[in-house]
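Last lecture ended with a question: if I hand you only a sequence, what can you say about the shape of the protein? Today we answer it with a concrete record. The protein is Cell division protein FtsA. Below, first the input exactly as provided, then the predicted structure, then a couple of comments.
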Amino acid sequence: MSLFGSSSFGLPRMKPLSAKRSHVVSVLDIGSTKVVCMIGRLTPRKESSVLPGRTHNVEIIGIGHQRSRGVKCGVIADLDAVESVVRLAVDAAERMAGLTVESLIVNVSAGRLASNVYTATIDLGGQEVESSDLKKVLVAAGQQSQRHDRIVLHSLPTGFSLDGERGIRDPLGMYGDELGVDMHVVTAERPALRNLELCINRAHLSVEGVVATPYASGLAALVDDEVELGCAAIDMGGGMTTISVFAEGKLIHTDAIAIGGHHVTTDLARGLSTRIEDAERLKVVHGSALSNSTDERDVISVPPIGEDDRDQPTQVPRSLVTRIIRARIEEILEMLRDRIQQSGFSPVVGKRVVLTGGASQLTGLPEAARRVLARNVRIGRPMGVAGLPVAAKGPAFSTAVGLLIYPQVADQETHAGQGGLFSPFGNGNSRIARVGQWLKESF
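The predicted structure:
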């Protein structure tokens, strides 16, 4: 039976973490560049001024990562290739942790992630707001987000209103005539999630929860002041670049573009007439998003594309490499700037942007981003997690670490009123769906 059909909400739902118990959580980050499996031990922690939203300390007890195969721009293009890479990554993490993984929290970048805000109001008649009223208004907002071609990943109430007064965090016990809620809902296309689940099931594993990639990377890379005051986290991966906007402690917007660091590499391979792997090495060793006064004088040796040993490497000025990289990086940054502007959340983001993800490590990128985005920019690395090997402490591992942090914030989401008693992969007009709807309305 599909795990996605095992809950009335459509996706497997995380069980809330017990604040008094330790938990072992396994996660899987399937990216275009690499696949990472992490196993973490979550132990209860006392309230602290450092990362106050966290209920547990996270310690990595197992990690495995493999070069990705079969994933293009975040989309699964070859099931067999992805399955074998997932098996290898999980196996390495299991051996290191000394335990067997059965279910995982996984990320999703594909499926044209969409971010919408739904507003609903109910009449209180001047009475006190009770928990049943909260549930009723959340159900009303949740029902608006139902679409048969998409699955709800996250459903977060971002703020309540009483008699038109907005910005109320918890209206319980307050009096008013009309209670309203703004609900931020992140959805993805059904087939993308189905293929993701299929891949994991074929590796004899099950899906415990699904988290949108921008949400996970933001959880790992942002500090509390940024999450509270308003900030954008930009995760630059190999095939996808995602945006998440946080404010007042919650995720309020997500977006994604199917372009990333791998596109810079292919531009170099074409422009310098060299192989992809040689272009990647040139990008990492010599590449920069900023031109330098010595670039014209510095000469780089470019390996030839052919197999003939007599072919000599080409000598090119470093300035040519920089020009090719800079053109693509500026295009990506301009797209991100426009997306933030179009979202309507530009004032919320203010001057704060955090870059994370593997492609954010390119030399000169923060400076280029400051210029194009006209904002303060810093590189975000995964925070608040113990036991990370040195190689996994960089921004490339933010999404995987964010997946381990997610169970601590999963209870902020509401699952009221979304989906009937049917698998999300079935037709909502099925007999079971209609019976489920009748049961819900009658009892």
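Comments.
1. Confidence is low (pLDDT under 50) at residues 1-9, 417-443.
2. Residues 318-343 form the longest helix (26 residues).
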